[in-house]
């Protein structure tokens, strides 16, 4: 594609063949392309238009994609998504054009079908730069269905084709709008809406009117006790391991924090970009006031140009001198190898040819260090979500044998896992995908924050060490989310 200017051209599903850079001509081209594409669509199809933006940070622009007052208006949509892999890909999305929500054993297959159907009707995979491709956003539940139905129950899967998608990688930034045509919505309206939004966001960026959300320490008024109930669950889990009933089980704990005020979820996420730079930060918000947030160090799978990568991550130590000891700890190496072997076996059973380095490396994520082995394979003809279905949950978050371990989780953990340790991510129109494991995460419900963390038990684990590991993980989460107990908050204010 040749261009007289270094600014990327606006593109639709098929970019117009001639294009100049002046503002008027750009809009005209957008409109021509919108009309052309609309003619090819079925009557009530979804039109997907995209434009390059001069710049902008998706994390800062997310609240401006669909201003909150509009989201709350009748017919408004409060869906919000953030995927912050900076310095890699960042995506902000708002509103739903198509969505799917279901539970049951076929959830991965049906989510794949939904994504393929939505995306194939929008665009040919070759069109536009990869960064700008339309994506279906996905959040799974840990279990295929919640135990108790109810308004806060997390279904087996939620999949969303968003109305607005803003994506950025390096210096390149694209804004996409997708809406159903018909019912009075015309291609011209869409082109105008996208054009105006792009100019509005650019003005916001240029006027420097975007501030990172202020992150002052948020005091914790109360935190729920967890140690005693976790101790007895771990004792029970270790008995199962010692008896040989389970080879591994990853038991989690949930801590509920009552905060001094209801923070904005982005205010909690912003510091994680600094503290957890090697992770992928995420937000999944279905309704105002409730949001899943986290910084995942663990990739269930990434598919990029037909190459698949999955991360085995298990074995934990605090950053510092102890960390190197992980490589020599038989218990941690065993705990880790079970994950590597299982992922490798699952991929091989699916007919792939997985490769892995012989020895794990150390991966530092904030104050925690883990044993890490990347596993890669060519994806072949497989669909990303069929492989995800086979991989989830790995023994890094459930246990072995998988089915028995999962049954024990339901009886030993006195809470619903919901999104904790489940896949979250996206799939795009070319079949690239990224699904992270939603650990190092929490759910914000107004002024209550529920944190969940777990640790793997294998033969050789001790109750005290597992309690310490989980306390460390919870403490790091609190610290990174800028939460402090009243006592800590008072002293940090005094220092300021
Ligand atoms: C299940 C969690 O971590 C997993 C990932 C890395 C290390 C782990 C461990 O050492 O137990 C866990 O397998 C969690 O943090 O909630």
TrEMBL record:
Record keywords: Isomerase
Protein origin, superkingdom: Bacteria
A Pfam family matched in the record: Chorismate_bind
EC number(s) given by UniProt: 5.4.4.2
Region Disordered: start-end pairs: 1-22
Family label: Belongs to the isochorismate synthase family.
Protein name: isochorismate synthase
Native source species: Cyanobium usitatum str. Tous
